[in-house]
Structures
1.
Amino acid sequence: MRFLLLNHIQNARQSLHSNRLRSGLTMLGVTIGVASITTILALSAGASKVIGDQVDALSGNIAVIRPGITSPDSLSNLTLANPHRDFAASSLTEADIALISNVAHVEAVAPLMVLSGTVKADSVAPSETPIVATSPELELISNLKVQDGQFIDSTVDQDTATIGAQLSIDIFGTDHSIGKTFTIRGKPFTVIGILKRTNNPINYNSIDFDTAAIVSLTSGKQLNQGLPQIQQINVRSDSVTNLNEAIINLNKTLIVAHHGEHDFTILTGNQISQPTSQLFYTIAGLTAAVAGISLLVGGIGIMNIMLVSVAERTREIGIRKALGATNADITIQFLIESLAMGLGGGIAGYVVGYLLAFGISTFLTFDPVLNWEIVIVALTLSVTMGTVFGLYPAIRAARKDPIESLREYN
Amino acid sequence: MKVMPNPDSPPVIELHDLKKRFGIGDAEHFALDGIDLVIQKGEFIAIMGPSGCGKTTLLNIIGLLDCSTDGDYNLDGRAVATLSAHRQARIRSQQIGFIFQSFNLISRLNIIENVALPLTYKGIGRTKRLTLASAMLRNFHLNEREYYMPYQLSGGQTQRVAIARALVNQPSIILADEPTGNLDSRSSHVIMEELSDLHKRGNTIIMVTHNPSLTTYASRVITMLDGRVDTDTHTPIEKPLLIAAKRPLGGSPALKAIKLKDRSSRRTRKAKKSHRTHEMSHK
């Protein structure tokens, strides 16, 4: 049996080689399908990894409090990935911030209130420019670096802002804009600091700090008709080991403050990135399903070519049977041929997919991920395709009547 | 040295009332209509007859490529009907060698690979396969053509390759379906010499042919007509009679013996008649 298998492999190689163009085009169908799936998976895994890395980089002592209840595994989290829920009143209040600051083991607290509005100086910033009202602690918690000047500070006048490097270029035409004035919703602010570029539009705060204008919470309230609308509170504990204790204390304090109503969620570690990762995986899954259609077309191509091959080689099947081949021998011979086409196309597709992903990533802010899960997906897909779509032609070949086959015109 | 059939050994092939029907209803047609035949080990049988008399069908059934509609076929004492398709394929691989009129080499494989093909299904490794195939080709003086493709050889050479392929498994039975049908007379005699040589080495050969001059190589000539055995130059009276007599089928042993006697006298008459016709046609 071992030799027979080896012989079938040699035979398949010979048969595919003798019909190079035909086999090549069939493999191309599989290659395109597998390549598109590999590209999508590699890029989406790359995007998810960015957030995961950020959470890891925050040395594990960060917790995020969000209004409302989210169950960590539910798909409904996807809608909560974006804290810009302007239409709903947040269950987190300014009073909560004061309470959280006093909880044991809590080192720093930064509320996030993200507004939208016209940001204007020499020119108008794009409409999606985030206006972030927060406390000076955000610099420490989210590890923001200032390139020039300083971060917003409680001792400095309230009408000041720290802006992202890209925003500075957008509205002033330069990233040296310290001391210049710009308006948010018509209210003037002076630039006191420029943030260093992060190149990280995807993060757990869901804010691209390169294009953001950061103002104090008081200024934010003034811009929002005196109302605080807190979408997220970032908390940093004094050490990694004390984070759990800090969370327990936070829970107790907030439940008491909210009259026993558990209308908030505290997330740590991977939970912070999970909704965003899930969002990416869902999008990736859907696009992969669409790419799967091309894979299906590739599979039908294999079946088509194998049926042609069986018809062409009917006489050969008859000869082989007369020389002692069993039905199983004939089935395996043709199955290995289709498997070789599927696997060949799959391996080529995997390589092409990664090259494509790396090509696309030069226009994106993250790199594709090379991991064994994608290798397994690509290989499993191609092997399954080769087998499933090759099985029917192989069985058809094996069932051919040897006498009829020998009569076939050569 | 010519190996003569041994009447004491059990017959290799035993056919009893073998029928093969094609089509149904109005189109029903019996290609074989009650064949009784016993073939001993080491016989060289030539089967003759007009086109459509069932020669090739008989050969296909003997070679386990086809199955009969009715009747018994015992190969080496075992009823073929009880064997699975897998087992039948194994027997084809190990015991039977086929030689076809149209050679039936696989065109995309070279000569040595074609000859080595039957060994594949015996599970023999590639190197050993090619060594054995090469040795077999040397016997047929084709060792210099090992890596030629089938279309690069003459008809006679191609048929010698096909014979080499049929023999590489060292089968005990060789079935040849008009092996010289596509060859000129010179090549035909070369091929027949090869077959005759194989017969001398003890192989059982059953050959279908249209060419009466080739029957001189055979030890027994059977002519067929309308799906039945018309004449048989050799009737292995003793042994098959006893075997047939022991069978419960076909009434009492005494009756069976009478029937067989009748049949043998008819066969002798027909053989004489055909011999006369043959002589006349030569004149």
2.
Amino acid sequence: MNSRSHFGEWELLVILALMRLGDDAYGVPICRELEKQTSREVAVGSVYATLERLEEKGFVSSALGKPTAERGGRAKRYFRVTTNGVREVRKTQRSLMNLWSGLLQLERGMA
Amino acid sequence: MKRSKPPALATWLLEHARFTTTDVIAGDLLEEFNKGRSAAWYWRQALVAIVVGCASEVRHHRVLAARAILITWAANYGALLLGRLEMIELSERHFLAYNPQLAVWAICFLGSLASGLIVALLHRGHRNAMLLTGAAGLLGWALMAIVFLKAASLQHPLLQIIAEASIVDYFVILAGFAIGGFLLTPAPKPGAPSSGNPSPAY
């Protein structure tokens, strides 16, 4: 596993989208979820690059599904978050909550 | 009117890029296109997937990528130097039976053809990524040289002519490199991405 274990911003978004989708997490729904949450166009290629990085770090695992006709006979690649990944997300959540708590600018709704 | 089929050239490029994830991405893009995405969206996604796939492969094989760039630079610098010397030689002898500029282009083309072949044959497992890296290296070199010549031409107007001629030289070099690398060497086998699980360099 890579020694660098904390998430980048984009990695965190991708892994959270993955957690929201559960078992049906492959390229198309992951990108749709990210587009819905971030309100911007997402590049499928960059999502896969991020997922590969997360897989190298041991936070995500993947498996190929069956090829389907609507995809021109190509298989889907399903992703799921590993136990290590969930643990790391919790750690990041705690760190962010600690950083966010007590910030007067955010509590008063200031930009 | 909505097109029923995705842009064929974009699909061809994606299928022939053969990076780790391009086959799965091609399936995702087709699925999305069939659900109503535009051809422009498909093109954007395909090009980004190729660039990101190449960058990912380079990240995993940095030493090979550096070697590909060095080989490309060395071979083409040699060819360009030889071409220029040939041109000077011909000018000095007033040998006008043929256009000396054509001789320069021919030497540049052959040199870059050879460099494309060498890079492709030395990096069979990562052919496309290393050729794209070499081509990016060539573009970077060309851009630097042209910017340098343009800047220097403010003091030496003659350099302006050389800068303009160099644009064609580099275009010939890039064409030769692409033909030598992509067309004269066997393509990676279908369904066999150039790298499976990412492994350390070498």
